[in-house]
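Researcher: Next sequence.
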Amino acid sequence: MNQDLTQGAPGRVLWRFCLPLFGSILFQQLYNIADSLVAGKFVGENALAAVGNSYEVTLIFLAFAFGCNIGCSVIVSRFFGGGKYAVMKTAVFTTLISGVVLCAVLMVSGFTLGSFLLKQIHTPTEIFKDSLLYLNIYILGLPFLFFYNIATGIFSALGDSKTPFFFLAASSLSNIAMDIWFVTTFRMGVAGVAWATFLCQSVSCLLALAFVLKRLASIKTKEPVSRFSWPIFGQIARIAVPSILQQSFISAGNIILQGVINRFGAGVIAGYSASVKLNNLVVTSFTTLGNGISNYTAQNIGAGKLPRIRQGFKAGVSIVWLLCLPLVFAYFFFGSGLMRLFMDRPTQTAVETGAQFLKILSPFYFVVSVKLIADGILRGAGHMGKFMTATFTDLILRVILAVLLSGLLKNPVGIWYAWPVGWSTATVLSVYFYRRGPWHENEPLKTPASPL
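Model: Next structure:
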């Protein structure tokens, strides 16, 4: 059901809209966590390391899918909030057509450069073959990843966060079952977890696309709907490209970090692979809630209701802090137990590495969550320069400090300490930029004119 985010108490509206988004991202992350868990538990520590090692490269492709999601979502939200339904449909079709071209380019690039990227991050010889196999199967499934993300972005723009949640919940639970089935019954190893993800993601993508097209058909318009518009493409690109660059640079930074981590051996790689999945579960969840704030912001800008944006920020922070409490408690006090869930016979190095990573980072979830809510508002308002400034500050600090501290300390703990410094500095910047937005002075916000 479509939901107007410009009506009702902001706190209640955001709770109702964002909680299914949070549930969706939990199930989305289960794809990756299930792959690591099954690989480590039923194949071995090297298999876990191979999946985790490839995961950092796959984040580059995910960055492009995320950019298409948020670019389409923000622009469609703005047109939906302003009641411009014909232009809104044109924005959807423009994104889908652009996505086909971009996805094809990425697949060719991925198959061509995959082996090179794995070598560049110093992938150990004993896990190289499995890392490349997992990566190639992942690239084969890129169209499903892309168009599922676009479809969920459209649902979110229409105020519907529940429909994609139901698709993803069913698909993710099926993925876990198929992971175990392919690995234990057919003895497919790392290939089994990759193919299970491929099949389940394809089903969720096709269902989501079918439902979103049906939803669009139910929205009647008097004006003609174009299948592609260069002016709208430009508006989408102005949001999508900075988001893609942001995520791509983060992925590039993570690849550099993975290269530093790989120098410490397979045990550290396995521990980091498990713990970073749990960390990404939290950060990606908060990022998704930030995306919900972007939709909320864009709809209210389209409707000319700027004061609701301030109320939305306060409500968003309340939501993420409540979600932080159990996650920080679990990661800080039970990190070792969580690591053992991923591995059947873990080495002490792997367990200690993962638990140490979680203990250092988890208290700062309260900090980075505020940044991601402020970022959501900046992105929804189209303030992409400020958004990117805060994000790149975080990334640059993390990478530089990780390289320096790991070298000085001769220990991977130096890498973990870099995260809180980057997060804290970037949070100060994001909140500063948010507080200087026009919603604090009730100034009119300039938005691009309708191209149709």
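Model: Residues 45-81 form the longest helix (37 residues). Confidence is low (pLDDT under 50) at residues 444-452.
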